[in-house]
Amino acid sequence: MNALEEEGFVMLGGPLEGTDEVLLILRATIPEEIVDRLSADPWHRRDLLRVSRVTPWELRLGSLQ
Predict the structure, then answer these.
(1) Cα(2)–Cα(49) distance, rounded to whole angstroms?
(2) Which pairs count as long-range contacts for 43-47, CB under 8 Å and 24+ apart, including other chains?
(3) Sign for the pseudo-dihedral over CA of 9, 13, 19, 20
(4) 43: closest CA among 7, 10, 18, 8?
(5) What is the DSSP string of 17-47?
(6) Residue 12: which residues within 8 A CB-CB, separation 6 or more?
(7) Full-prediction pTM beyond 0.85?
(8) Which of 41, 60, 58 is nearest to 50 (CA)?
(9) How far is CA 25 from CA 15, 43, 51, 52, in A?
(10) Which of 4, 25, 29, 64 could form a disulfide with 10 if both were Cys (CB 3.0 to 4.6 A apart)?
(11) What does the pLDDT look like over 29-53, one tens digit per residue?
């Protein structure tokens, strides 16, 4: 995860309060890229990361720089 964040793929991430889920804001062009990149991550191989949903999102206020 740290490497994915350092290269700019993971933009933001953190736990969803009151759940055992995490929200990740990722920079990708197609949903398959997200699934492919995350499936190669050690967290996924250790069953610490499961992709439950990929939903496109458009930033309208602020910036991720």
Answers:
(1) 14
(2) 43/1
(3) positive
(4) 10
(5) TTSS-EEEEE--SSHHHHHHHHHTSHHHHTT
(6) 23, 24, 25, 64
(7) no
(8) 41
(9) 12, 17, 12, 14
(10) 4
(11) 999 999 999 998 888 889 888 899 9
